[in-house]
Amino acid sequence: MDLKISEIRERFNNLNPKSREDLEKIRIEFLGRNGHVTKLFEEFKSIPSELKREFGKGLNTLKTEIQNKIQEWKSEIESNSTSNVDIDITLQEYPISFGSRHPISLVKNELIEIFKYLGFTVYEGPEIEDDWHVFSALNFPEEHPARDMQDTFFITKGPDVLLRTHTSSVQVRSMEKEDLPIRVICPGRVFRNEAISARAHCIFHQIEGLYIDKNVSFADLKQTLLYFAKEMFGTDTKIRLRPSYFPFTEPSAEMDVSCKLCGGKGCSVCKYTGWLEVLGCGMVDPNVLELNGIDSKKYSGFAFGMGIERIAMLKYQVKDLRLYFENDVRFLNQFKNW
Ligand code: PHE
């Protein structure tokens, strides 16, 4: 048996395969079902058991040696084979397609940049909230319709745990924690119990702003919003403030920007009015300041809030809100170069 082992080893060591085919032949000749090594293992079964220990060891060593050498030859042949092939290095690389930012992220980042320039910092808070931060601290009366199950997603009732319906809740948190003056913008996801359509969704994004200091006036609010409108929609953009109502601001207003598409003349996008509604705003109601422990005799503030989807729709001329949530790559790919 010893002799057979060394014979096989010698035969194997004299080989010098040049190709994958040669190597496969060798593998079959030695390790295949009828290969030399396999046959020796067969023979091994019938030798007297006193000898098994000695020969078993030799046989196993031979098998591993052959296996390792075959592996080594294999890697050698593979690495050589590429250097022998005629490669055209001028060929164009297989195109790798990169992803792109979601339009909502693009607009959100742009808004953050605009307000950052005016000294606003980003403030974030939880999506799951309590009644205090979403409604009570913002002067919502007990019977306000927003507190209804039809408008708000409640997780539990009494104590009320709910999904925030606006990021004004984060403004409350900033008043709770931060020293005055406060100058924050609060971007984030909000939830409302609404039927999904081209113009409404039960999930969307907002960015809300809050500025509280001594002597903050409506003129400061107006100038801040005019600056934002010009930065976002172009320097020739005009703004218009219409009286409105929010429980947490007094006076309250809604802001329109002049329609960029028709230059204010009237078209289908602005529904022939020349104006597009973009946000809600107002002077923080003194009640809200007091509810949040701020002396309304010393301090005043303004707040505003807008839907990011709405701004993105105006900016990119997207007609259906649902597109933002379906994540169809044919839609998303269009934002590659923005
Ligand atoms: N929170 C209001 C909304 O969700 C927007 C708003 C914010 C209005 C601040 C006025 C002031 O519609």
TrEMBL record:
It is found in: Cytoplasm. It is an enzyme of class 6 (ligase). It catalyses: tRNA(Phe) + L-phenylalanine + ATP = L-phenylalanyl-tRNA(Phe) + AMP + diphosphate + H(+). Its EC number is 6.1.1.20. Residues 107-314 form the Aminoacyl-transfer RNA synthetases class-II family profile domain. Mg(2+) binds at residue 250. GO terms for cellular component: cytoplasm. It comes from the Bacteria. Pfam families: Phe_tRNA-synt_N, tRNA-synt_2d. Tetramer of two alpha and two beta subunits. This is Phenylalanine--tRNA ligase alpha subunit. It comes from Tenuifilum thalassicum. The lineage of its organism: Bacteria, Pseudomonadati, Bacteroidota, Bacteroidia, Bacteroidales. The gene is pheS.
